[in-house]
Amino acid sequence: MHHHGYLWTSSKQRFDDEALRRPPHPDAPPADKPELIQRYREVKAEFPTVDLPPLETAHWLIKPAKLVRGTWEEPQEAAEWLGQRLAQYAPRFACESDRDSTRLTLLAYSAAERLSWDGDVSHGFYLERPTFLSVALVTCSPSRAAPDLACPTAVHT
Questions:
Q1: What separation in angstroms does the CA of 49 have from each of 8, 62, 153?
Q2: Phi/psi at 30 (5° precision)
Q3: What is the pLDDT of residues 6-47, one digit of tens each?
Q4: 64: number of CA atoms within 13 Å, CB side?
Q5: What is the pLDDT of residues 94-135, one digit of tens each?
Q6: Sequence-ordered alpha helix ranges (H) in 63-144
Q7: Which residues contact 62 (CB under 8 A, 6 or more apart)?
Q8: pTM here?
């Protein structure tokens, strides 16, 4: 069992493209809907490779290994990475209450707890300008939320 860290920042507009943040439905749309078929094909091709944060945290495991920002065996190590990223971005958080250091420490602490029972962790924050930060920790090998998903770094470990 190990944990992968993911971090993404970009425009809120890009983050809002929800079609590319969820895997395509297993069934293609009806043949008489060419505009839907075209969009379905685009999403099917792009979802596994696009760097957008997935709507379901475990679906990060479908993404390319190059998006993994770190891998840790121990939940505490992964949570420390999360805490460091939160502290790094805190000055840019759009909401002043999100910058509170005690709150950020509690988020890292709760991440260690959740990871210790094989859960996943995902947080999102609006930054200055219309920018969004997504930071996630995903338990892997196997994922509790999606046990059928393979480890994205298995070929590299």
A1: 14, 8, 14
A2: -60, 145
A3: 999 999 999 998 889 999 888 888 889 888 888 889 888 999
A4: 8
A5: 999 999 999 999 999 999 999 999 999 999 999 988 899 999
A6: 75-89, 101-116
A7: 23, 47, 48, 54, 149, 152
A8: 0.91
